[in-house]
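Before the break, one more example. Copy the sequence into your notebook; we will annotate it together after we see the structure.
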Amino acid sequence: MAEVCFGRKITERKLSGGTIGRVLDRLGINWKRARDWTTSPDPEYAGEKARRDELLRASADHPEWAIGFEDEVWWSRVAQPKVRA
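Here is what the structure looks like once it is written out:
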């Protein structure tokens, strides 16, 4: 939001995330990161997520395992990659 405000010349300088948060609070706007509240319309989503979490817990006991997921988003749960594909 800070980048957009600055880019559209709404503000003279790029604001910090804290400033944006305080402004939203004063305006009575509740804001949460999407990852904290979004759900999938896929009826199998909850089961797939539970299975994924189960595998991640199991991998903690097996440092020799390498885990990969078809959906690149899940990589953020394991480690932040230094490359993009």
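The mean pLDDT is 78. Residues 2-31 form one domain. Try to locate both features in your own notes.
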